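[audit] Reproducing an earlier prediction to check determinism. Same input, same settings, fresh worker. If the tokens differ from the archived copy the diff job will pick it up downstream; this log only records the rerun itself.
[audit] input (94 residues):
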Amino acid sequence: MRNIWNKIVQWILHLPADKRLHFVAGFIVAAFFGISIGWPWVIVPAFIAGLLKEVYDIVTTKIWEWGDLLATTLGGLLCQIFVGLGIWWGNIII
């Protein structure tokens, strides 16, 4: 498990700075929904947040970056994995 975690951290550290921020933002949005309302599908709000940010970017700068949306969603996915493990191990009650 430690080896997997180290690989994830190394992958994150090799991302460009703006993609890391999107990744962290997706994780935070997903964690907020997981903690505040106990919703088990926390990847959905992370994806929606990334989508809304890209819509904002296309309106203001005319640039859509799929990588930003992907990074935000992957941050939510990592949180989703943690929530799933917490539910499986019985640490999170739905």
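[audit] rerun output stored. Observation attached for the diff report: The mean pLDDT is 88.
[audit] end
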